[in-house]
Amino acid sequence: MLLPLALALTLTSPDVKTGATVPKPFVWNHNGCDGANRRPRLSWDAPPAATHDLLLTVIDPDAPKPGGWVHWRAVLPVNTRSIGATLPSGTIEGKNDYGTVGWGGPCPPPGGLHHYVFTLSARDLNGRVIASSWLTPVYKR
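Above: the chain's sequence. Below: its structure in C-alpha cell form.
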C-alpha cells in the first residue's frame, strides 16, 4: 500500500522561529559558547492516524561535517503534542555530535551563519515517514 507523502503536520515553538536567531538560553554552554543549553519548547498538532511514533531531529547542515552536525535526536510517543523542560515518559533520546545524550544547542565555529533544521516526522509501524514539519532558526557566533 502506498501512503501519501503530503499529510499535514504543523510544528511550532515560542522559543525558536524559522529565520530568527536562536536565543541565548538555548545555545550550547561549552567550547567557547556561553548559553544555558536549555531545550526549546516545541508543540505540534495531531499526527496522521497511521502514526506509530514521532522522530525529532535537529541538524546543522552548514557544519563542516558530512551530513551536518546532529544537535538532537529523540523518538517520542505518538500521543505527545508538546515538549519543554521535561520530556514525556517513553521518550528515547540519542547521542548528539557533542557526544552527549539529548539536546546540544548551537555553537558553530566563529564566522558564517548556521541554520538549525528542526524536523518532526510522523512514522508508521515500519518506520516510514508519513508526515513531516520543519522549523529552521539560525545562529552565528
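The mean pLDDT is 94.
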